[in-house]
Design brief:
Blueprint lengths: L10 E5 L4 H13 L4 E4 L7 H6 L7 E4 L2 E4 L1 H11 L10 H27 L2 H17 L1 H6 L10 H16 L8 H11 L2 H6 L2 H4 L7
Parallel strand pairs: 1-2
Antiparallel strand pairs: 1-3, 3-4
Helix pairs in contact: 1-3, 1-7, 4-5, 4-7
Protein name: Glutathione S-transferase N-terminal domain-containing protein
Pfam family, one: GST_C
Family: Belongs to the GST superfamily. HSP26 family.
Amino acid sequence: MAASPRMRNALTLFSSADDVLCHRVRLVLAAKGVTYDLITVDPKDPPEDLIDLNPYHSVPTLVERDLVLYAASVVTEYLDERYPHPPLMPVDPLSRARLRLAMLRLEHDWVPEVRAIQTGTKANADAARKRLKELVATSVPLFKAYKFFLNSEMSLADCAMAPIIWRLEALGVPLPKDGKAIEDYGNRIFRNPGFTRSLTPQERNLRELPA
């Protein structure tokens, strides 16, 4: 398909205004300092460009000239390899596999609860809120173990986790009593100018940025 006139830069991202997986991709792009065109779409009413490019009509969708990628995990790993500085994955295979597994669990266990709270019925949202609260509580030791999520340096796993932590307050999910490590972790990332650049106006309004 020929590039649409809407896609002026070599890199274009189709993204919703408030979604943890789209935010994950935008955070990687911000960490890499990559210039791109952002096309904000309503996933329930995808534009014709997106329908033509992606058979699932889903976001995030990344377009680079003739290359079209979708699924946050695929897009973020591509970006880390395409723009290698700063690297967002460890060098050794064992650590890379551990972080990939953590990101998979976030997508399978955490993200559905976030979306159920945002879009489900009251009963579904209340149940999802309870489950997400339990997931946060059981994860506290992981935040105490390293400066970043399961790693001593910021990685793609942080780009997946930080958008969820950013939304907890707005989702009505309080941190557990022993959750200071999670609060410190969030503030460490949220103070980074790259995180601020990754936010859409809707996401910026979800909570206060730390001083």
